Amino acid sequence: MRKFGLIGKNIDYSFSQSYFAAKFKAEEIADASYQNFDLESISDFPTLLEDTQIKGFNITIPYKEVIIPYVDKLDKNAKKIGAINTIKFTKKGKLKGYNTDYYGFKNAILPHLKPQHTSALILGTGGASKAIAYALQKLNIAYTYVSRNATKENQISYQQLTEEIIKTNTIIVNCTPLGTFPDIKACPNIPYAAITDKHLLFDLIYNPEESTFLNYGKQKNATIINGYKMLQLQAEKSWKIWNK
Fold first, then answer.
1. pLDDT tens-digit profile of 202-235?
2. For residue range 105-128, what is the model confidence (pLDDT) as tens digits?
3. How many CA atoms are closer than 13 Å to the CA of 214, on its beta-carbon side?
4. CB neighbour list of residue 232: distance below 8 Å, 6 or more residues apart
5. How does pLDDT run across 3-17, given as a tens digit for each residue?
6. N or C: which end of the chain has fewer CB within 10 A?
7. Catalytic residue among 64, 88, 96, 237
8. Distance between CA atoms of residues 241 and 191, nearest Å
């Protein structure tokens, strides 16, 4: 039996476990299982490697960046992004890190892009936001990070976010966990009044299906997309990597 699983912290809500269980059943894949590996600290990761039946991992919050020193090699895209969400055991038993988040996001947003979608705001600066930035770069879309503390170039703080900035950035991507079940009323603190029907709001959250962030966009007739399609695409990409 080949084992796969998700590494994260407090991941009972996980999309991945139910997704792969349904996939294995539907496609009659009898030699694989998928489970959650809820780690209190990333330093617990090496103990998982003692199980020789494990053939691959997905990685979620908060370990997408701090797990990198534990892998032997990075795929070229993962190296550029600086965060990984997939690990494969190579034939030589080495660990290779990949990032399929950027692939999932890029292909989920692509069908919804219109000529006015030329610049974006990325809310949050964690591991997921790095994959989003990389995908936007590939799509030739300029972007600015919005964070609580703007410490780097190409970053602004929420306090600096004006209605004018919202108007000129017609894509807004929420990479923060704000609004995730059960705290569904929470949302990033941005000037929602400036959103128009020219905007596209993308939320990496998929539970609830329509977050408060997306609901504000919907009220302004903006295009809204939740994280489900992205997750589906990145999961399938991970499966291909593990099986190639």
1. 999 999 999 999 999 999 999 999 999 999 999 9
2. 999 999 999 999 999 999 999 889
3. 19
4. 19, 104
5. 999 999 988 877 899
6. C
7. 64
8. 40
Query: In 10 A of CB 54, how many CB atoms?
Result: 17
Report the alpha-carbon distance of residue 218 to residue 212 in Å, rounded: 10
Q: At residue 152, what is the residue type?
A: K
Q: How many residues does the chain have?
A: 244
CA–CA–CA angle 148, 152, 158 (5° rounding): 25
- Catalytic (active site) residue 218: no
Q: 24 and 33 in contact (C-beta within 8 Å)? A: yes
- Quote the pTM value: 0.93
Query: Residue 145 burial by CB count (10 A; 0-12/13-18/19+): exposed, middle or buried?
Result: buried
Handedness of CA 121, 209, 35, 42 (dihedral sign): positive
C-beta of residue 218 within 8 angstroms of C-beta of residue 241: no
Read off the pLDDT of each residue in 54-73 and give the average, rounded to a whole number: 96
